[in-house]
Structures are given as C-alpha cells and as structure tokens.
Amino acid sequence: MLEGRNISYARGHEPLLKNLSFNLKRGERLVVRGPNGSGKSTLLRVIAGLISPPKDTLFWDKKSVCNQILNEYQQNVLYVGHKLALYPDAFVKDQITLWQNVSRETFLEVLKIWGLDSFVNKRISHLSQGQQKRLSLSRCGWLKRSLWILDEPHAGLDDEGKAILDALMERHLSEGGLIVLATHDKITSRKEIIL
User: Fold this and answer.
1) Distance from C-alpha of 67 to C-alpha of 53, rounded to nearest angstrom
2) Which residues touch 68 (CB under 8 Å, ≥6 apart)?
3) In this prediction, what percent of the chain has a pLDDT beyond 90?
4) How many angstroms separate the CA atoms of 150 and 65, rounded?
5) Could you identify which of 31, 90, 114, 159 might form a hypothetical disulfide with 134, taking C-beta atoms 3.0 to 4.6 angstroms apart as the criterion?
6) Confidence (pTM)
7) Residue 43, SS3 per DSSP
8) Distances in Å between the alpha carbon of 10 and those of 14, 16, 43, 47, 131?
9) Beta 77-80 vs 191-194: how paired, if at all?
10) Residue 185 CA neighbour count, 13 Å, CB half
11) Strand-pair partners of 171
C-alpha cells in the first residue's frame, strides 16, 4: 500500500536521508527513530508529500507519488507535525470552522474523548501546551484518512493523553489503517527505520 524505495534527500550539500526503503501494508506501523537532527522529520515530510519525493521512490497503491497524483495521494494522509495547526487567538469551538471536514457533533464527541469538551469556549492560547497538543491530535479521531504520519506525537502529553493516543492508534491499525511515526519513545513495531 505504501512503499519507499531508496529514498535519499539532501539539504544543500548535506545528505539527511540515504537509500531508505520500507513497505507497509494495511494495519502496519513504521517507527522512525534517531537522535535530534538525524532526519526523522524530513523523512516524514517527504512521505507526506510536503517535500517532493525524489522520482520513483515513494509509491501509494503501487502508483508513484509524483506531482500528477500528489493531491490524490494527500487525500489519504493525516500529517501531524511539530507545528500544531492551531490558530492561537481562536476559541476551541472555532477550530471546527477552520478544519471544515467535521460535523459539530463529531467534533464535540472527539473533544470529550481527549478531555477538552469543557474548554470549547476558551481561547486556544489559554490552553496548556499539552491541551493544545491534544486538540491538534484530535484530528486523529474524526479526519478519516488511511495513512497517519505523526511526528513525535507523544511529546508534550501527560500519561492520560498518551494512553488516549495509543488507543486511537491501535484502533486505526485494527481497522486497516497505516501509521508512520517518528518517536524517541519505546514503541514496538515489526517495521522500523533507525537514522
């Protein structure tokens, strides 16, 4: 379903990724590990199509991800990076108008799962960093995408938030979804890339 073949990428003259390959089928997770600055986020951005993948290195359903199918491919992708995609001056309830792909009822249900339902009338900038992270990750609960690309999603979460995220990831995998995850945490996976 998702395959990387010898993905290489350099910033300027500095190589960040060199000949990385992987193959993910439905229900599988790829864990990307490495020290800070090793290229984990860069690899995730290439897989998400935010950095153009080198020609014939990234494949979705056996089709090469290139400019011609990038939009179609990205309709299958949920990317949650370090930047939380939140508007700090907005109220929590306003995020629904910015995200647009969710009904109010579903949005409120997902907020309840994340323990944020009592904050709907609060400004996002008044939430703690962990609460903002939960709000950003709430997209995992309502945005129906096959491929989740998560860059250090546990960072900034308390134990309860981590447990919620872990349960959502396990459910996504059990329903045939795919996850590419950069982490420093001890998450076991049969498929792993060490940078």
Assistant:
1) 9
2) none
3) 74
4) 19
5) 114
6) 0.93
7) helix
8) 5, 5, 11, 15, 35
9) unpaired
10) 17
11) none
Instruction: Identify the DSSP state of 123.
Output: B
C-beta separation of 6 from 20 below 8 A: yes
pLDDT digits (tens, 9 = 90+) for 12-65: 888 889 999 999 999 999 999 999 989 999 999 999 999 988 899 999 999 999
CB atoms within 10 A of CB 62: 7
CB neighbours of 12 closer than 8 A, spacing ≥ 6?
none
* Amino acid making up residue 177: G
Other beta carbons within 10 Å of 29:
22
Query: What's the helix, strand, coil split of the chain in %, to 5?
Result: 35, 25, 40
| DSSP H or E run through 166 | helix 159-174
Q: How far apart are alpha carbons 152 and 190 in whole angstroms? A: 18
Rg of the chain taking only CA atoms, in angstroms: 17
Phi/psi at 15 (5° precision)? -70, 130
Question: Which residues does 77 contact at the CB level (< 8 Å), separation at least 6?
Answer: 48, 49, 145, 146, 147, 149
User: Is-contact 101 171, C-beta < 8 A?
Assistant: no
